Amino acid sequence: MKKSLFSLAALVLAGFTANAQEVKYEEYDLDNGMHVILHQDNSAPVVTTSVMYHVGAKDENPERTGFAHFFEHLLFEGTENIPRGDWFKIVSSNGGSNNANTTDDRTYYYEVFPSNQVELGLWMESERLMHPVINQIGVDTQNEVVKEEKRLRVDNSPYGKFFENVKKHMFKKHPYRWTTIGEMEHLDAATLEEFQAFNKKFYVPNNAVLVVAGDIDVPQVKKMIKDYFGPIPRGEEITRNFPKEDPITEQINAKAYDANIQIPAVVAAYRTPSMKDRDAYVLDMLSTYLSSGKSSVLYKKLVDEKKMALQVGAFNNSQEDYGTYILFGLPLGDVKLSDLIKEIDEEIVKVQNELISERDYQKLQNQFENQFVNSNSSISGIANSLARYYMLYGDTDLINSEIEIYRSITREDMQEVAKKYLQPNKRLVLEYLPEEKDNK
User: Fold this and answer.
1) SS3 for 50?
2) Helix (H, G, I), strand (E, B), or coil: what is residue 431?
3) How far apart are CA 100 and CA 88, in angstroms?
């Protein structure tokens, strides 16, 4: 009886969660090809204005890596109507905040303002798109900023080149093979004309989605959008035809060295499908099962019980064209990296050969329900999700329906996906070492 009541309560809660979390929105296209998404929520006097551009590190010339990330910085320099250095002053003096970020697939800019400043946010983003000032002084200034960021986050950071070394072995043809921050010599060698050409090609309305979310009057905002963004001319259509990777058919063994670390690490990485593929969702659940929290399978076994690792984990790096599934461990004491990977492999084989317990499965479902609730709990989070689902997945309504994909995943799905992708002959095993010597 208790079990039945619990099951009934769980079903009611799931239904309530789905209804309570529904994000209402309206979307349409301007004549110049810019996609617009509006989400009205008048519960707090706050608005987020954001623009996501479909340009990331993968769109770069292999001899000019780092351009997409560079533009994330460069386009705060100023416009024809916003003097150089005034962007952040305007935002902060009007009670707002702003930021931007870049991945291999897209670049995202946003402002959060009191809702009576929604027009200011729209004007500023239209200025960034229509009237950017790209000159030598801005390029030189941001070049130094990016170099300092690379020194801080990559060159002088422990394990800062970890993912860089995974990518270059996992991808031989596709542009995911280089880093988002790029090579500094490429930026140094670039001409002003090359930066201007990159802007002209990718920063066009038909390569962007504008999201306005929060305390808005929809008819008023629509008029503002038409006034500020409507006159911006459509750009040339962007075609992408990236080379396909050959399948990995035998284990790749590699070493990398990092002067900033004292404890080595071992990585097992597998190439996986696009984030849009249902299998990518299954891999998300699998990584959570293996390594999310201290009660997870890998942590419990290798850190708590066997005391072989200081840290161990699994994560699914899903991207628009491919994904990379990564298992890693940092050994404790004199534990060999080969022994650590052997222990991790044992847990993968278990998942491939046995269904996870019903209890663990229900725990996973609860965790993903919680993530779903949290992802839609703020206006800025909703704005980001609306832009991402439209641009990278081609389905804006995933903001409401994605949880149904996770709910539909079975224990059998997890077993089959683990068998399909996590095979020793389809992976990279990378030893990440403190100095140039074998760790065996």
Assistant:
1) strand
2) strand
3) 12
Where do the domains of the chain lie, and which CATH numbers do they carry? 23-229 (3.30.830.10), 252-433 (3.30.830.10)
Phi and psi at 172, nearest 5°, equal: -105, -25
**Contact (CB, 8 A) for 421 and 279:** yes
* Burial of residue 6 (number of CB atoms within 10 Å: 0-12, 13-18, 19+): exposed
| Residue 197 Cα to chain centre, angstroms | 26
- The answer to whether 308 and 323 have CB atoms below 8 angstroms apart is no
Q: For residues 27 and 238, what is the distance between their CA atoms, to the nearest angstrom?
A: 22
Lookup result for tokens 């390594």: 291
pLDDT tens-digit profile of 54-94? 999 999 999 999 999 999 999 999 999 999 999 999 999 99
Q: Are 202 and 60 in contact (CB under 8 A)?
A: no
Amino acid at 318: S
User: Whole-angstrom Cα distance, residue 288 to residue 303?
Assistant: 16
Short-list 324, 242, 322, CA closest to 274? 322
DSSP secondary structure string for all residues of 230-278: TTSPP-PPP---PPPPPPP-S-EEEEEE-TT-SS-EEEEEEEE--TTSH
Q: What is the mean pLDDT of residues 152-156?
A: 92
**Predicted pLDDT of residue 436:** 66
Contacts of 36 (CB under 8 A, 6+ apart): 27, 28, 29, 30, 209, 210, 211, 212, 225, 229
What are the φ and ψ backbone dihedral angles of 370, each rounded to 5 degrees?
A: -65, -40
List, edge to edge, every strand of the sheet that includes 107-114: 26-29, 35-40, 208-214, 46-53, 107-114, 97-102
- Is it the case that residue 21 has pLDDT exceeding 60? yes
Q: Do the Cβ atoms of 38 and 25 come closer than 8 Å?
A: yes
Q: Name the pairing type of β-strands 208-214 and 46-53.
A: antiparallel
3-state secondary structure of 385: helix
Could you read off the pLDDT of 247-292 as tens digits, one per residue? 999 999 999 999 999 999 999 999 999 999 999 999 999 999 999 8
Phi first, then psi, for residue 401 (nearest 5°) are -105, -10
Q: Please, which residues bridge with residue 439 across strands?
A: none
